[in-house]
């Protein structure tokens, strides 16, 4: 299970880290409260702040972190049952994790839909609108088009519920990376693994822990790091990249992981350079590629 903390090292701020998290830096949008920028009711009335922010944080301008490549290695070693992410930055896909191994619990920028007639638009179509500083409107009905990320007040994708039901009972090690475990129903997934399944939290701060009264009464849900009866919950506090590198070292894949990160970052940089060069030299090629996508 992963949250925004796996992508902060790529330069994408999380929500809740004091000072540098998004919620601390939204004053310029003059919102009724910081969370409003991701609330569907507010978005329907005033979509501009979301699109301004989307431009700043647009996926595609960032490279996956070491932690993303660690998850890819888990899969390549045949150890990954599924990767559940709250992130909408698509960095798991960019890192090369196959789509069937990912559950994007809070949706993705990969596709977009008109809020009124539900017409679908591609990622390139949306990118063009976001970067031209316009609120994307539907070519069929003029409704506002929204990326398929889940706002507060919207349902999670069906795939989340279907996969969680069959995956979590089968889990024999749950790794939780870079999440404050505050957003439901995602946060409650930690309670759906078997009662003896070890749960490892790699995060800058403790998260998801049961309050001590409940723990003393052996009641309630959540992670239980401190009680004498704890035999399975571990909090490793520090950066996700450092924690994953340490795990990879212990598994004997440390050098493989380091090399994978270097090679992939070189490949992505080259690809980004080539794309921007082509689009400067042949702007019509960009237009043609987009119209083929429609
Ligand atoms: P959050 O509530 O902002 O919590 C992030 C957690 O990660 C905090 O506990 C931080 O201490 C911790 N953290 C931050 N950086 C690191 C690091 N480098 N190493 C280790 N720990 C770190 O974010 P959650 O994901 O828990 O909350 C769920 C929200 C955030 C979802 O709805 C997401 O869509 C949303 N979000 C996603 C992105 C993204 O796609 N990258 C960015 C910002 C917010």
UniProtKB/TrEMBL annotation:
Presence of the UniProt keyword NAD in the record: yes
Domain of life: Eukaryota
Pfam families linked: SIR2 (PF02146)
Keyword match rRNA processing: no
CC cofactor: Zn(2+)
Cofactor note: Binds 1 zinc ion per subunit.
UniProt: Zn(2+) binding residues: 114, 117, 138, 141
EC number(s) stated in the UniProt entry for this protein: 2.3.1.286
Catalytic activity from the UniProt record: N(6)-acetyl-L-lysyl-[protein] + NAD(+) + H2O = 2''-O-acetyl-ADP-D-ribose + nicotinamide + L-lysyl-[protein]; N(6)-tetradecanoyl-L-lysyl-[protein] + NAD(+) + H2O = 2''-O-tetradecanoyl-ADP-D-ribose + nicotinamide + L-lysyl-[protein]; N(6)-hexadecanoyl-L-lysyl-[protein] + NAD(+) + H2O = 2''-O-hexadecanoyl-ADP-D-ribose + nicotinamide + L-lysyl-[protein]
Top EC category: transferase
Comp. bias intervals (Basic and acidic residues): 275-294
Keywords from the UniProt entry: Metal-binding, NAD, Transferase, Zinc
InterPro entries xrefs: DHS-like_NAD/FAD-binding_dom, NAD-dep_sirtuin_deacylases, Sirtuin, Sirtuin_cat_small_dom_sf, Sirtuin_class_I, Ssirtuin_cat_dom
A GO molecular-function annotation: NAD+ binding
GO cellular component, one term: nucleus
Catalytic site: 106 (proton acceptor)
Protein name: NAD-dependent protein deacetylase
Organism: Cryptotermes secundus
